[in-house]
Fold:
Amino acid sequence: MTSSSANPAAQGCVVITGAGTGIGEACAKRFAAQGARVALVGRRRAPLERVAAETNGIVLEGDAASAADWQRFTTVLEAEGGIASLIACAGGLGMGSALHTADEAWAAAMRANLDTAFASARACLPQLIERRGSIVLVASIASLAAGPEVCGYTTAKHALIGLMRSLARDYGPQGVRVNAVCPGWVRTPMADEEMQPLIAHHGDTLDEAYARVCADVPLRRAASADEIAEICAFLASPAASIVTGAALVADGGSSIVDVPTLAFARL
Structure:
């Protein structure tokens, strides 16, 4: 999608990494609903095929961090009308403190969260430059602050903001806009898994576990994947034509909370 037209289908494909589940799946459905041709990138064919059936999308099975896979993908996409926007949703891994992070786990966290975004952007940029397109990197509030024992994930997500700013600075003169979304808790299958220790320890239901982690969030709830997809669609749309280099926080207000004053709120 570019700033020159309100019709995404006329401009080429919206490429979405991590498109088989969670925020990536929600983005695919959101862009398809507004008439865009969506290309779905992921390592697992079954979920991609399921989303493709609902969106009439193009399935691109492979590793978003692989230059070789991207060479294959971009050839397909050029034949499909080119790339108008990239929505980089692939991510995950990186749990554990530094002393409990092996070299292999560190490398896996960097590959899943940072290398996927870099390789995707690098591969898509030539076609994005042709169409004055846009990139949205799905980052996290872990790009801005550190949670407990998530060293690899936090480091990689912080680096995503640097990547976004570098891309926005270098390719803005060629008409390419690059932004990031920084969600807090989002109800996705991956986040559901992260609730399991709370469920096990407290005997919570899944809903109660989400309520527990959002107890000090001003809006008192997690986001839906659809809400984050709406933000991605906005940033890729003509309505955001002057927005580049921005990290848009979508966390229900959690990052504005003054942590040292929380004790007073419980008086």
